[in-house]
Amino acid sequence: MSKLRLGVNIDHVATVRNARGEGYPDPVRAAEIALAVGADGITAHLREDRRHISDADIDRLAVICRQRGRPLNFECAVTPEMESIALAHLPHAACLVPERREEKTTEGGLDVAGGHNAIAPVVRRLSEAGIRVSCFVDADAGQVAASKAVGAQVVELHTGAYCEAVRHRSPEADRLLGALKAAATEAARLGLEVHAGHGIDYETVGAVAAIPELAELNIGHFLIGEAIFIGLGPAIQRMRALMDEARSRAAA
Length: 252
Ligand code: PXP
Hints:
Distance between the termini: 10 Å
Strand content: 15-25%
Strand order of the largest sheet: 1-2-3-4-5-6-7-8
Bound molecules: pyridoxine-5'-phosphate
Shape: globular
Radius of gyration: 17 Å
């Protein structure tokens, strides 16, 4: 089983910064720490309303990721503005996500099946520019197949429903984990690289990391919260260790 990459999402460092309109805490400093302690890449979501990450943050993140030879995964909505920002920065990867202004976070996956005609040309232009394009989708075979059909090279499976079910001790958790496993198997069968993310914490990371088809997890909110108590470096190192343990246990 291949090693599972960890992309650290630093959006919520910017959320804290923006609460006061000051220049600190700086998400770029968080990205530097994350890369120094073993994150494989940095993920940042430039939302249309700029509620956390700003355009200037993306400029600086693109520079430090390039300098350190590490991937920047640019999360964005499928809009002409976001497409042109991606094309201006040429990040390693772009993850296409749905966005609704009133949502607290990315609450569900992108409807790639319903949006084929709008999404396919964007995927083509980003891919032609050398960006690896991923579609953030629910654990659903139809959406996985639609991601393949629009030309994406990667799908990122939305783990939010599973993680929430575990946190609330819901009997649905096993079924939701089964759906993630089935979607990962189907994506790999179609030749897609499979990522996963959203809502992952120390409790849920093991079961997700054990899904053999996964190549990358993207984790943010929990790590930034945990950093308040134990520091960002140790929080990331602990997550990395839990991922590695789960992976070796699953391979044994
Ligand atoms: N992956 C994607 C596509 C996301 O939209 C997010 C949240 O921005 C994450 C991963 C990370 O989720 P969380 O911050 O809940 O760990």
